[in-house]
Amino acid sequence: MKRGVAITGMGIISSIGNTVEETYESLIQKKPGISRIENIETIHKDNIKVGEVKTTNDELIDILGLPETNSYSRTAMLSEIAAKQAVRNANIKNINDYRTGFISATSVGGMDKTEKYNFTGFDKAENRKYIESRACSDSTTKIASTLGITDFVTTISTACSSSANAIMLGARMIKSGKLDRVIVGGADCLSKFTINGFNALMILSDTDCKPFDENRNGLNLGEAAAYLVLESDEIIKKENKKVIAYVSGYANANDAFHQTASSDNGEGATLAMKKALEVANLRPDEIGYVNAHGTATPNNDSSESKALQRVFGKSIPNMSSTKAYTGHTLAAAAAIEAVFSVLALQYNKIFPNLNFETPITGTNIVPTVDVLDKDLNHVLSNSFGFGGNCSTLIFSKSQL
Amino acid sequence: MKRCYINGIGNVSVQNSLDNSNFFDGFTELETNVILVHKPNYKEYIKPNLIRRMATGVKMGVVASTVALKEAGVALPEAIITGTGMGCLIDSKNFLKKMIDNEEQYLTPTSFIQSTHNTVGGQIALGLACKSYNVTYVHSATSFESSLFDSLLMLEDDVHNILVGGVDEISDYTVNLYKLIAHVKNEETLSEGILNSKSKGAVFGEGAQFFVLDSQKTKNAYAELVDLKMYNRLDVAEVPEKLINFLDQNDLKLDDIDIVILGINGDVDYDTYYSNLQDSIFKNTQQLYYKHLSGEYNTASAFGFWTACQILKEQKIPEIMKLNEHKDSPTKNILLYNQYRGEYHSFTLLNRC
């Protein structure tokens, strides 16, 4: 059996662009989307920088054509924009002409509405439509309904690795013949809740984050949504469809070390990368680019560096973290980085690790700091989260 | 296709259910609109220094999973798959409240850390030092079924001894919000039970049910999970046809179903999904219900799944679950049907093994 699952469409919205095209331009122009926060009122606004989508909620409502009575959280709106793009990009005319599923990931769901109305706002009847938006399933069900998907629909939440697991489940379902087509990805909006949570953990940077740099001092939070359309070989053949790339490897392992911190030796990350290579049947030296998790927290980057050395030995491929472009977009991170990985394969470009100056003492890994032209066949992407969740995806240009 | 046997079960619920044998005569019907978990002796399962910091959901999950693993004789599962509709919502609320009350100052991260939905799965992995596949599904009333679905795929990939479960906790605060929108019944006592309730909303509870699944059955195995199907949204009238299709795909006819277990929760607006089946295609089938014992919560269907395991293994039906009376015959096939407010439908088929 062929190993790769075909990707036929993608959609994305993040602080570096509202479309796939804008995103690619920002990546190759080295234009980060990190700024001071504008859409949320917080006392931390002068002490943090974020990857904020500057389009306001009102503008998003307009773009989506939502009625005034809508109960969309910002997560749901970002999600619907990206999912619709993906479906359009895959040139799907009738969503139910094949068994189509929708698997979405989110960590905070509609927390923006919950934090706005909880404790006082729900006294007013007109705000009560947002009570249910706290549930992670809320945005998934709304988008499934808009897209007309009636078959398999679910939501995954494994903190910052969430959408990697959504992509992985989708690929497994296509491979096992449970679905013919599936839209996979994730979304998270910025919220005061996450800003204050990460601030309390003392892992927010007060300036532009510096992944894999000796002097990194924390992460920038971001918001985004991205989705891929995966389709079976039968659809590709029957419809003579253009395939953008393939999901060829995936794995999920648990660090089982600490609820929030990664182990010093990157155990979970190592296991995830090794298993993903096994699934794809690739040797480490066949990977041309690693899109690292690289949040720019002291803990993650040192742990991930160790894991990269354990997997790749002395010859680590070109690698970069794109978090300095977008911030850490939590449950959406793996999905937007899946789009970046596919763009890297499509254009044979490696996107730089911005803001890097000094390698981390001990591991001395130097990421790629400029846009680099390179013939790429396989790209590996990491995503790790609280709860010890470590996931790795591998994308390939052709079907293995 | 690989078989899927249920080799161990563990249930922490509003009933005294931790001792699995208590099921056949020890359960009582809920009399209030909201009921909290019957607390196990947590100290028997969790180190005292950890108990204090753990959310209710984590504690319930750790205990239920410990019992299930012990029954199955499994020390280290090869996958941990958790379903939870709302995660550790008390910590989530606590962090939010402190953030608002203190105007974003003087916050400690403990509640924030616990608020992520994958805390239960993560803590179970941490406790077992289990480095294998670990995922959390958060899709309302099909969170547990999504987890079962993933388990079936995992078994196909030759993964063994999968720990799978559902867990959801409740808090006064959430209950009060749900009362505002009539998701929880507003009357506090139910004198005539949920079947005769004429009001909107459900009776609410909380709990954690975990199971150990494998393609090999042990001598203690409870049942076999044959198949399941989820639909995100269906009309009342669509359910019978979808259900018959589901049975058809498993080469079964309506007559082959010995027992149907329904997710009736007392909500006058949505129990029609069940009554429509009771009066039609399942008119001549033994019908059971369980949410008058467990209360409603996003993963309450895992409680229903647990009752099916017990019934299939012991070949006995507790009187308290019966919706009608049918002649006693061996129970071979059980079908579970659940939905929540017209969404998140699931059909789950279990077989005697």
Give an account of the 3D structure:
The complex is a heterodimer of chains A (400) and B (353). The longest helix of chain A is centred in the N-terminal third of the chain and has 16 residues, at 74-89. In chain A, 32% of the residues lie in helices and 19% in strands. Chain A has 2 domains: 5-239, 3-Layer(aba) Sandwich (Peroxisomal Thiolase, Chain A, domain 1), CATH 3.40.47; 252-396, Thiolase/Chalcone synthase (Peroxisomal Thiolase, Chain A, domain 1), CATH 3.40.47. Chain A is an alpha/beta fold and 400 residues long. Chain A has 12 helices and 15 strands. Chain A is globular, with a radius of gyration of 20 Å. The N and C termini of chain A lie close together (9 Å). Chain A has helices at 20-28, 57-64, 74-89, 111-117, 137-147, 162-175, 192-200, 233-239, 267-280, 298-312, 323-326, 333-347, and strands at residues 5-13, 34-35, 50-51, 100-105, 153-156, 181-188, 221-222, 224-231, 245-254, 289-291, 318-320, 349-350, 372-373, 378-384, 389-396. In chain B, helix 2 (56-72) crosses helix 5 (119-128). Chain B has a 10-stranded mixed beta sheet, sandwiched between helices. Chain B is α/β, with parallel strands linked by helices and 353 residues long. In chain B, strand 7 (259-262), helix 9 and strand 8 form a beta-alpha-beta unit. Classes of the chains: A alpha/beta (400), B alpha/beta (353). At the A-B interface, helix 5, strand 5, helix 6, helix 7 and strand 9 of A face helix 3, helix 4, helix 5, strand 3 and helix 6 of B.
